[in-house]
Write a structure and sequence with these properties.
Layout: E1 20-21, E2 24-25, H1 27-54, H2 63-79, H3 81-90, H4 94-112, H5 117-144, H6 154-182, H7 185-206, H8 223-249, H9 256-278, H10 285-308, H11 314-322, E3 323-324, E4 326-327, E5 330-331, H12 340-361, H13 368-394, E6 399-400, H14 401-429, H15 438-458, H16 466-485, H17 487-493
Parallel strand pairs: 3-6
Antiparallel strand pairs: 1-2, 4-5
């Protein structure tokens, strides 16, 4: 999900090498394994996080506070992808940035494994920082392995790479989730650290197979820029330290002093970035028009991710307290629900690719706008489905596991309609001046959606209530219908993009 920079070069592990990985450069094996283990650690910890936050043997927080923390954490991961990409482009280069990111993530998981609530939040912060640094740069290095965008193996290489993401995401809840829930929470977090250690080791050992350009800093900071950046960073850090010291020593500090500013940033920064790009006088008329169209997609995507990402918080907490988590009498850990989406992605993605190709040959493939609108409607339908298990639970009964599986299935189909299209349209509609930054802008839609969920939770809104779930479902369906109804207007704004 990150943008790729490409260079024409031949070095060990690039096109022209004798040894390959499924017909691809050997460096792909290094990046595949690194990403697989990083996602294993990330999704394993993510599956445990909301359950640990509400568990009597964990932090024993309310469901609302747990959802707020989870949502703020997710929004931070995607928000930090933009400065992560900046570090790769201006300071360290992609290869060094990924190595440093892996070490930070591993340290974060080890900190989570310590039996202390104080260090727990520090661990979450470290994992978010490391994930932001890594996410923006590792896909760039996949692009470096190929001879430009016309290399016939390029798309296949990214497909193999993303299989690594889903393999790690599928296995993590089954292993880390089981150990964390059934044996010891902190041992589960320690397993996540082990996963990242394996990924980092693989990366360092296999980095000789990567393209030489992955070590290059594309646009290094000048001495003046470096000095200015350090001054600004020190100033803001100093302001934060002083402000929190005053709050802490005055005895007024609560968790909301961290959560509220972070959630507000998660909403404000995406808006500021879009406004800055839209008002840039360097953009020509066609680029301005495309950005107007892109705002439609951005807002729709933020609504989609607001609901979709509650699959790991609202739905997980509901399953923990109100679902019959068993199949034919065999009980399974709640965290296993988080493996449903990646296994469905691996099963359905090739089917969707085949369907689009078949429809395209007949001239009947749905447009980008129709796919996007359909994804939004489906994520809304998933929450209308959620109303059934909520009603069952309100009647004093446990809801069947298949209700939750049906919700995750519907959301996954919606994701396959919206997410790949969103990535594609972001690259196609990006103004030339912001070509390398627009993928970070796409991530900000996730940030905005998750931050909105966080704000609702902090405000005391119970996201497991029938009325709220129905309202969110209606919002998504109405947004999807609105995108479809105004498809001709959006299409005209898109210009030559289809």
């Amino acid at each position: 999900m990150a943008s790729s920079l490409t260079k024409d070069s031949v070095s060990p592990g690039t096109p022209g090498s004798e040894k390959t990985f499924f017909g691809h450069p050997r460096g792909l094996a290094t990046l595949f394994m690194t990403e697989m283990w990083e996602r294993f650690s990330y999704y394993g910890m993510r599956a445990l996080l909301p359950l640990y936050l509400v568990a009597p043997g964990g932090l024993h927080l309310s469901a609302g506070t747990a959802t707020a923390i989870y949502s703020v954490y997710l929004s931070l991961v995607y928000l930090l992808a933009m400065p992560g990409g900046w570090f790769g482009d201006r300071v360290w280069g992609p290869r060094k940035t990924v190595a440093v990111a892996g070490a930070i993530i591993m340290l974060g998981h080890l900190t989570l494994a310590l039996p202390s609530s104080g260090t727990f939040y520090a661990g979450l912060g470290l994992v978010a920082i490391g994930s932001g640094l890594l996410k923006a740069n590792i896909s760039t290095m996949v692009g470096h392995l190929y001879k430009g965008p016309d290399d016939p193996r390029r798309d296949g290489g990214f497909t193999v790479f993303y299989m690594g993401i889903n393999l790690g995401a599928f296995a993590a809840p089954l292993i880390i989730g089981t150990i964390g829930e059934s044996v010891n929470w902190h041992l589960g977090f320690a397993l996540a650290a082990l996963g990242m250690a394996l990924g980092l080791g693989q990366f360092l050992l296999g980095s000789r197979h990567l393209d030489a350009h992955s070590s290059v800093v594309p646009k290094p900071l000048s001495a003046e820029e470096k000095s200015s950046t350090l001054r600004k960073a020190a100033l803001w850090a100093g302001i934060a330290v002083v402000a929190y010291a005053v709050v802490g020593f005055s005895g007024h500090y609560t968790l909301n002093w961290i959560l509220v500013p972070l959630t507000l940033l998660g909403v404000i920064i995406p808006v500021m970035v879009l406004v800055r790009i839209k008002r840039d006088k360097d953009l020509d008329r066609a680029e301005q028009s495309k950005m107007s169209a892109y705002i439609w997609f951005f807002v729709a995507a933020a609504i989609f991710w607001m609901i979709y990402d509650q699959g790991g918080s609202t739905l997980s907490i509901f399953a923990d307290s109100s679902a019959e988590n068993s199949v034919l009498g065999w009980e399974f850990p709640v965290s296993w629900y988080q493996s449903v989406n990646p296994v469905l992605i691996m099963a359905l993605a090739p089917v969707f690719a085949w369907i689009w190709l078949a429809l395209n040959r007949r001239g009947k493939e749905p447009s980008t706008i129709v796919k996007f609108a359909s994804g939004l409607v489906l994520v809304g339908v998933s929450f209308f489905l959620f109303l059934a298990p909520l009603s069952i639970a309100e009647g004093g009964h446990k809801a069947a596991a298949l209700w939750l599986v049906a919700i995750y299935f519907t959301q996954t189909v919606g994701e396959l309609l919206l997410s790949p299209v969103g990535l594609s349209v972001t690259t196609k509609m990006a103004p030339a001046k912001y070509a390398s930054q627009m993928m970070g802008v796409w991530f900000l839609a996730v940030t905005a959606g998750d931050a909105t969920t966080g704000l609702l939770s902090i405000a005391g809104v119970d996201l497991n209530k029938t009325g709220i779930v129905a309202m969110e479902a209606t919002l998504a369906v109405v947004a999807g219908v609105a995108v479809w109804m105004y498809r001709n207007k959006v299409k005209s704004l898109m210009g030559d993009v289809r």
